[in-house]
Amino acid sequence: xxxxxxxxxxxxxxxxxxxxxxxQFLAKGIKNLVIFDLKENAEILENLRKSYPQSKIFFVxxxxxxxxxxxxxxxxxxxxxGQFDVLVNGCGMMDDTKVDLMIDINLKGLINxxxxxxPYMDKSTGGRGGLIINISSVAGLEPTSAVTIYSAAKxxxxxxxxxxxxxxFYDHHGVSFITICPGITETxxxxxxxxKATFEYAKHLAGxxxxxxxxxxxxxxxxxxxxxxxxxxxxxxxxxLGEIKEVTFPVFWKPVMKSSTESS
Length: 264
What we know:
Layout: E1 7-11, H1 18-27, E2 32-37, H2 42-51, E3 56-61, H3 67-81, E4 86-89, H4 99-121, E5 130-135, H5 148-164, H6 167-173, E6 175-182, H7 203-207, H8 217-230, E7 236-240, E8 243-247, H9 260-263
Parallel strand pairs: 1-2, 1-4, 2-3, 4-5, 5-6, 6-7
Antiparallel strand pairs: 7-8
């Protein structure tokens, strides 16, 4: 996708990776940017507006754990900018001691946001199609025992986004889906992992995350926007240690169709 002149909604835009992604999208010459987040960060907003005066930048408060708040946020965004071309679902948290909140933010909220956005983008009902990017994790590719609940939620994100990229869906609404799986990135999300472990007696497993090599949020954001420009519908892209790698999956199962005799 050529991002120049496009309208972008970014959920969780004031987060560690998100605020750098905002700069990368704006540097591509997008027309309008709407930032969804729980609280406004006036300093980031002011700096963005000064640095990228060619784009209009809006903040809309929303709570990703509340479906009514999600509905209201998209309605407000469309009132401000009209149709939008790109949605990035970038809200996330990692803390296995808060099971319900983890699922609500990382998986349920992402699904609700996606399903709320689609009718606005749907070509079959007057939208102009576009791109939805859902941010999973390397923990959504490989089981991560240190934070098993976080890993389960992110596996759900990966499966949901791949499923939404089905060609039948794309032919109907014209919206592409891409899954982004960042490696360990230097943000608050991964700070003090021992306090966020699934089990206290095994918090040393989470401590191993502190010893793993990390990438900076700037390079992760740069690569995310590269994928937005060049990625394909259904693609799953791991952004780890400054590199982009497309992930392919073996097919473990396909349904066996009944014969015509059996079905009759």
